[in-house]
Amino acid sequence: MIGSALTAVMLLWWPPGLAGTPSPRPSISQGKAASDQATHAIRESIFETMKAFLTGDVKTVKRLSAPRTLDLINLVYDAAREDPRLQEDLRNARVTNANDFLRFFMQGIANQYLQAAPMQPEQAARKVANDAVISFANQSEARIVVAGSDFARARLAAREWKIDLADSLKKAILREVKNPEMRARIKSL
Questions:
Q1: Closest to 46 in 3D by CA, of 126, 110, 147
Q2: Contacts of 141 (CB under 8 A, 6+ apart)
Q3: Most buried one in 11, 49, 71, 169, CB count within 10 A?
């Protein structure tokens, strides 16, 4: 259930019929060249992250995800392990740690998305990256809107733009998690 809720939320980011023209709006303090360079770098992070999700590349997803997103995935794994409804599913999928859980989660997304969208993973990832609307909150954070939905943030960390999906994923996850302590931990992220 948690996996299906996460998959549904992630698929909102990558629907087959995305429309819209990118319209980056840099903050006043950024010059046009710096803004264009940052926008390009964010689009590349979006592309690489989605491609990694669709191809099961856990290492790249972990490298390009903001720490909050990875912390959330770890909490979801902990919640799933504690949920009697999901323990058998995890066992059958041979999920024994958070990396296995992330791989299992990504595989579910890829299977559903690639069945719905007749594209190769790289082509699908490029379309999402190109169609994303990016607007800057400041020089180290940008909002990413996909298909009209505020879906993610890009955060600059150690000169690399990391994709932060935590806020958008939390809503779906909190609908599934029943444990009050785990819910509080997820909300506090």
A1: 126
A2: 153, 154, 155, 156
A3: 49
With residues binned 3-state (H G I as helix, E B as strand, rest as coil), the percentages for the chain, rounded to 5, are: 60, 15, 25
Report the pLDDT value the prediction gives residue 31, as an integer from 0 to 100: 64
- C-alpha closest to that of 56 among 116, 118, 110: 110
Say how many C-beta atoms besides its own lie within 10 A of residue 92's C-beta.
Answer: 8
Q: Pick 156 or 109 by higher pLDDT.
A: 156
The amino acid that residue 42 corresponds to is I
Q: Report the half-sphere exposure of 100 (CA within 13 A, side-chain side).
A: 12
For helices 84-92 and 67-82, angle between their N-to-C axes, nearest 10 degrees: 100
Q: Is residue 121 scored above 70 in pLDDT?
A: yes
User: 106-125 as b/e, with b when 16 or more CB fall inside 10 Å?
Assistant: bbbbbebbbeebeeebeebb
The pLDDT tens digits of the residues spanning 133-161 come to: 999 999 999 999 988 888 899 999 989 99
What confidence score (pLDDT) does residue 22 get? 39
Q: Please name the residue that has the structure tokens 């992330």.
A: 102
Mean pLDDT for the stretch of residues 168-172:
84
User: Distance (Å, rounded) from C-alpha 27 to C-alpha 172?
Assistant: 31
